[in-house]
Amino acid sequence: MNNLSAFSSSSTLKLLCLSNGHGEDVIAVRILQKLQQLTSIDIAALPIVGEGRAYSQLSIPIIGAVQTMPSGGFIYMDGRQVLRDLQGGLLKLTVSQIKVVRSWGKTGVILAVGDIVPLLFAWGSGANYAFVGTAKSEYYRRDESGWHQRRSPISRLENLSSSVYHPVDRYLMRHPRCKAVFPRDTLTTKTLQKWAIPAFDLGNPMMDGLEAQNLLKLDTDPQRLTILLLPGSRPPEAYENWQKILLAVTQLIFAFPTRSLLFLAAIAPTLTLEPLCQSLIDSGFSQASLTFEQKNASVILTQNAYNDCLHQADLAIAMAGTATEQFIGLGKCAIAFPGNGPQYTYAFAEAQSRHLGSSLTLVEHPKQVADAVRSLLQDPTRLQQIAENGYQRMGEPGAAHRIAQCLVQQFNLE
After folding, report:
1. Which superkingdom, per the lineage (predicted)?
2. 323: burial class by Cβ within 10 Å (0-12, 13-18, 19+)?
3. What is the pLDDT of the chain when averaged over all its residues?
């Protein structure tokens, strides 16, 4: 933790970035990196959730107290996690962070990245602020053709609202000190602009930095079906997800006995490979380094070739948040099924399927994946529509630079 007083003596305008989760931290870093290239502004960060390790790559100092909570930041998905976080010091941490943000607000501006939590912090600072909304999209409720069908009466009530952003959200975004709002897609931007909110349609930074790096050297085989495996990044949940994904893999090997199958497992650095390798061996695979083989199939585990996995794969078996959306944003299709959580529950997967539309096929059980894959491969027209849908919902690369340019203008940073 760096002392806030280190910034107080500087006469340069200062920017504090607030974010609430690892995915939000990564998006924030992409914007801040571009901002550093455009201006000499002093930048600091305060990750409200987690320790904000993504900021270290830019040597951005973290001010105030940070702490990883038992829920990992997913308390909104499981109310039982709230008590655990409170017992873990959430209230004390929040009070401390609010004091830091208010102190910063006397001399600097704020960029909030995430949901209503950092947005509330920014509003309460008394400073001018901007907001990158990563958590909500109008696509959760509707698409260009109409409203989504919802199962429960409570969920159907959400469609009666004027926006996926509630009145409190819109008040904070419409406040005179809020200089810019960057929604995650065009549909959401156009909706917010109806309330005179300074919303800019500049794209989704989630799609930046995904260029292939050619770290994964694969032989060419036009007949091979390459499938990306995404178990998520949060232990121990990701290990449980992996077991379910392996069940789907086994079914695919049985369903396509004469076709070469390559499974690329993009494993987050937060996970340990040993239990994943052991699960493959227990499932009948033979091991050679981080490559595993069984019959007509190979599984490659990698922790450093994520971008290459995204580009090499034809489709994905996904139980992840950000990674699933990035893969779909490249015009590809994913198949998902719910896990035990706390993140990738049925509620999360169902909401994600609404958000991503036809690009994400949601099944109830891993054993149904093989049939879903067969159906996709037999429908080239559907695959083309899926590609167009992914590009539309996730946007073109370059959003971080465009947002940074807008921040320079809105905050008068020239």
Report:
1. Bacteria
2. buried
3. 89
